[in-house]
Amino acid sequence: MPIVNQVSPSVVDSEEGVLDGSTAPTTPDGSTAPSSLSFSPVLRPRNVDNVEGESAHLSIKSRNDSRSLSSALLDKTARMPPVRNICCVGAGYVGGPTAAVIAFQNPHIRVTVVDKDEKRIRRWNSHHPPIYEPGLNDIVRMARDGSRECVFLNETSKSDASSAVSDVSTASSECDSQCGGHREGLTTIAARQPNLFFTSEVAKCISEADVVLIAVNTPTKYRGAGAGSATDMTAFEAVTAVVAQHARAGAIIVEKSTVPCRTAQLVQETLAQHRPGVHFEVLSNPEFLAAGTAVKDLLNADRILIGSSPTPSGHRAAAALASVYVSWIPRSRIITTNVFSSELAKLVANSMLAQRISSINSIAAVCEATGADVDEVATAIGADPRIGSKFLKAGIGFGGSCFKKDVLSLVYLAETLNLPEVADYWRCVITMNESARNRFASRAVRCLNNTLVGKKITILGYAFKPDTNDTRESPALEIIRTLVEEGPQEIAIFDPCCIPPQTTEEIGRLLGSDVLNSNGGPVVVYADAYEACDASSAVLITTEFDEFRYSAPSTAPDAALSTLIRPKARLTDPRPFERLEPTESDLLALHTYLLQSSPSMTLSSHNSGMDPKDPLSRFSPMPDCSEDCPDCYLEKTTGTTSYGAGEAYISKGRLDWAKISYHMRMPRWVFDGRGVLDVRGMEKLGFRVESVGRQGRA
Q1: 590: helix, coil or strand?
Q2: Domain final residue pick, 325, 346, 367
Q3: pLDDT tens for residues 454-488?
Q4: At what angle do helices 263-274 and 234-246 cross, to 10 degrees?
Q5: Which residue from 487, 502, 443 is spatially nearest to 634, judged by alpha carbons?
Q6: Domain end residue (candidates: 331, 346, 361)
Q7: pLDDT above 80 (res 367)
Q8: Is residue 595 located within the same domain as residue 463?
């Protein structure tokens, strides 16, 4: 692998570098910024000035009118400037991971993430990134800090994992004794220079970029025209104006934020207003990431969607962006469309998934009333290949920043297009989702004799899904809001991926500081699940973390172990690599294999000097935090170093439900909102269990 040097910005000032056209966007993420636009109108296409004599209007054309985009992607002779500098505006849940993976897979490209939030930028440049995603920390370290030269044997390891690590740890000394530092089977990976940067210098970095990604937050609007369904474009419009003012001529503007269909026209008009006579190409490149698997989704994307204007320059711009992705994504997975199709596809994808969840939750309500079992119903219908089994798990509804917002955006789009039946259809998806959540909370109150006064209630899970600390639109928050109104003595909250002080601050901000125990309210956030459940009258499971699962032990000898940790698929050694110079994906696969094959390998005497998280000895030292770093102080005072944003969460094993049962108050109610418990097994431990989609006592 070649040594990577920091890439200087390239200037696109030739006619070939001017890429004009239009497009639109994707998912939520980023910072807020002041602006005047706070609604999402249905924009009708208008003609704008031509570039190279080509029509740049955004009406949908047949691709036969110009050279097809697919041809442009495959035509290596097509003239398109190489991408050497990318600026991502927005350092949140989309911008941060997306930029990190692009930089990781393209050592020759300088990738800079900019954000006005100084605190967020500080955390990205420290040991404490602001978000947690499995695998993200390793990728950020490699791209942000660079790497050291490493040596390993390019041969499949012996049967035990410790020998695999020994191959790596002894390879360097072996290499030193060989002619020229190489021998058959030995691979040397050159050091790489940092190419991922985080800064608050927004205008400067935009002005240097060949490609500008816009990945700022686009939440639902809650005031004014369209309140409750329209998309709030405040931050997006503000960033577009800044980009228009500072982007270099010919830069490619890429919309990553999820925005209403036909937003590309707004972008083109904003660019034209601020820079008349200067033309930019606008692409739509929506992301399809799921919280908790964002890195996996980026590294192994099932598709990359790029929308562009139906002009040769639009196709060249799309090909330039595609060249960034083909570093690790097969060309066959790159889907090209016109810009409006790309915009709409993102909204429809999330809306269809949300619809499926609401559909099975509606059936769960029927099951609770009739005595049917929703899991058995789901298994039966999921066996039909036309339906499939995915997204048929009943629960308390979906959360997160995307599903609800995108469904409502589709509702507003239909309303403005005078399609009331379409709007009503999709609005029912949201109605059913809220019904599932409210039905669960009401069921708990009914089982507790319609009063929570003097009782402690425990909530297990605050994030909206497992393996993430993303709490946006979490169903747990609304359940807590409902329970607070019942006047309980205490509402105890535990989440294995959320840091208690941050969770406490968020709940106080969203529900009012008076609900917090420190201000006389009932809400307390715990760092220990057993303390949260101690003396509790009822436990509500609101997030399906593996730690919360329970399966009744069988008579098999290894049954006790099976109740502690869910077995993981055994990884295989990716070596030998076919390429003389393994790709970053190859090296990441080897890194992951060495880490997960034998967690105890780092205790080996052969590796006493190794970083337990760096089996290839490739990481460069992380930047030091300042002496007054608030995150370091938080770790020291709360002891939360084993989870949260900075470190991958390591499960301590499943909860001991027998222990919890012993310390709970009779009659030991447990309300399973995510279907993670063996009901009969729990009843044998003395619990009364109520599950979604099953008839209960209430």
Answers
A1: helix
A2: 346
A3: 999 999 999 999 988 889 999 999 999 999 999 99
A4: 40
A5: 502
A6: 346
A7: yes
A8: no
Pairing of the two strands 538-541 and 456-460: parallel
Does 365 reside within a domain?
no
Residue numbers in the known binding site for substrate are: 346, 391-395, 399, 465
Distance CA 564, CA 487 (A): 35
402 is catalytic: yes
The structure tokens listed for 594 are 């060495």
pLDDT value, residue 623: 81
Q: How far apart are CA 392 and CA 361, in angstroms?
A: 9
- Contact present, 216 and 96 (Cβ < 8 Å): no
Per-residue pLDDT reduced to its tens digit, 301-357: 999 999 999 999 999 999 999 999 999 999 999 999 999 999 999 999 999 999 999
Q: How far apart are CA 414 and CA 436, in angstroms?
A: 25
Burial class (CB within 10 angstroms; exposed 0-12, middle 13-18, buried 19+) of 250 = buried
- Write out the residue range of the structural domain in which residue 87 sits: 63-105+116-126+197-346
Q: Does the pTM of the predicted model rise above 0.90? A: no
Residue with tokens 């083109």: 268
In a domain, residue 30? The reply is no
Burial class (CB in 10 A: 0-12, 13-18, 19+), 177: exposed
Of 87, 175, 402, 533, the active-site residue reads: 402
Residue positions forming the annotated binding site: 218, 258, 346, 391-395, 399, 405, 465, 472
Find the CATH number of the domain harbouring 458: 3.40.50.720
Q: What's the chain's length in residues?
A: 698
Question: What tokens does 500 get?
Answer: 């208690």
| Number of structural domains found in the chain | 3
